[in-house]
Specification:
The complex is a heterodimer of chains A (330) and B (335). In chain A, strands 6-7-8-3-9-10-12-11 form an eight-stranded mixed beta sheet, sandwiched between helices. A four-stranded antiparallel beta sheet of chain A has the order 2-1-4-5. The model of chain A has no long low-confidence stretch (mean pLDDT 88). Chain A is an alpha/beta fold and 330 residues long. Chain A has 13 helices and twelve strands. In chain B, 32% of the residues lie in helices and 24% in strands. Chain B has helices spanning 60-67, 90-97, 117-128, 133-146, 163-175, 193-210, 221-227, 245-250, 255-263, 269-274, 305-309, and strands at residues 8-23, 29-45, 49-53, 75-80, 83-84, 100-103, 181-185, 213-217, 230-235, 238-244, 315-318, 321-323. In chain B, helix 3 packs across helix 4 (133-146), helix 3 (117-128) packs parallel to helix 5 (163-175) and helix 4 (133-146) packs across helix 5 (163-175). Chain B starts with 7 loop residues before the first strand and ends in a 12-residue tail after the last strand. Classes of the chains: A alpha/beta (330), B alpha/beta (335). The interface between A and B is large, with 46 and 43 residues.
Chain lengths: 330, 335
Amino acid sequence: MEPLIRIDDLKTRFHTEDGVVKAVNGVSYAMGPGEVLGVVGESGCGKSVHALSIMRLIQIPPGEIESGEIWFGGQDLLKLSDKDMREIRGKDIAMVFQDPMSSLNPVFTVGYQIMEALMLHKDLNQKAAKDRAAELLSLVGIPEPTKRLDNYPHQFSGGMRQRAMIAMALSCDPKLLIADEPTTALDVTIQAQIISLVVKLQQELGMAVMWITHDLGIVAEMVHKINVMYAGFIIERGNVTDIFKQNRHPYTKGLLGSLPRIDEAPGTKLVSIPGLPPDLCHLPEGCPFYARCTFREDRCKFERPLLEQADHPDHLVACWRWKEIVAEGA
Amino acid sequence: MNNIDNQPLFQIKNLKKYFPVHQGLIFSRHVKDVKAVDDISFDIIKGETLGLVGETGCGKTTVGRTILQLYRPTSGKILFEDTDLALLQENDLCRIRSRMQMIFQDPYASLNPRMTVGSIISAPLDVHTSLTKKEKQDRVQELLRIVGLNPDFVNRYPHEFSGGQRQRIGIARALAVSPDLVICDEPISSLDVSIQAQVVNLLEELQSQLGLTYLFIAHDLSMVRHISDRMVVMYLGKIMELADRNTIYLRPYHPYTRALMSAVPIPDPDIASRRERIILKGDIPSPLNPPQGCNFNTRCPIATELCFQSEPEYREIEPNHFVACHYAEPPMNEK
């Protein structure tokens, strides 16, 4: 199957006073149409920056997309002019951000902000755009949508704002929806509402979804594939069951071990990963996880492992010792 | 954590904390109250970790702050060793405050950027003890060692540390005066997953070494269940349910607790696909205009006429299991 989007060796860095921050360090993968991909990792692992690079929303300078290709619809997004990119952004690829308050403009009504994209990308007139906007609000489960169109963002609650953001993102029937931690600022009961909404819409509309999060619990129930990122690298990639049941990278194991589970009898100690993620200005020469890894050996310090096939062609892992770790039964 | 002798350290009785709302600029008048904490009662048992959970705006942080008398309660009693803290004057309070300390949510905002780590940690010692300079220095170094930081860090400033390390400094400061009760107000919510586990493990070790009692306030239910002995579930200023951590997860009686527990994601695709979620409709009502009757009636899946008319009584339905619901009953699978 022809992939919807293919990313090849994407490298993004930022020039700061403290040096060059290497935020994304050679990320390559492809997503099929209708696929739901989870991108997980801790803060500073490059998960958001890589998504912003796809959207071409990195501010240049200080940012710089050093190299790479992003193939979408037969063209390399990184080579498009700003004008052509604007045609794609919001239309074919849409994004929902983490903080719904700061990503909605407080001085325009919610209705106006949804209609804006419709009038720009779909050439609708004001009347048609308004009807469509009301339809979208009711699609994302906001009661009395026609009345709500005239509200300003501050009149919406946090969960409703995020619903409005999703309505806005869906307004032009995107082929790919990038959701960057859309539920992090919300309470669990509202988070459950938003997740079930996105799952429902994804199935109805058949779009591909990239869900970026630090919460492995969320991705467990909704995605097909997972990229685990660390220090700007994908260190493991596979199907949901690969990552949760047959994970091969010590970092993935550590991340799962440090999560308490509500359905497990408490009393066991959490397995924490010692130390801190590396400084992205001074990336270690070898494996980025070397300093915190309990399975490390000398080779890991000097040679950087590349993604290689683990148990089957869809399961990739970047670790020199994964086979030995399996053999040790760890 | 395991040597609970059921001796209450704190008894909170009918605690209320209202924040007045004023209207008008010159002739300002008191129009109504935000009922942040509305008539709640519970005990904190010596040596336990009591988890306090609830969604944004449910009043959990206000409870913590009111116990410490950082907010003076509107009414109600906070009994600590037969002393009602609510009645104490500032001078007496100051003395008793060394026995209860707090760990704050934001490790960036809660440490003064112009003070060295040494002076941050010794600040409570300056106020509450008459130790000599040398003794204080030794105590600070000991505290740094206890929380897993290098004792040579005393002369560094907060900006030189990562979030997790700063939270350790905050913990060292809270422990400086050997308190009985430590109120942990979302101590891990601003940290990364792998660092959260480090801090939670540290809190657990310290508890067993020093015999601390924790009131652990958080919205991450999995983590609270992991660390707590008993859990309190709050909603709009009221306690919905209180029980030990297993009962509250396995046999919740309140429909809100049931929905809350089912909304927590489980990092296991097999279980996640099998389990049924109770998705609550709508949002939390404003605490300025709480609904009549039961607070939860606007979102409750089983609300009836009765719930809109009268407020359910907060009662002990089984030994050590408190619930406030007209239709409190064991979960479906037990009937």
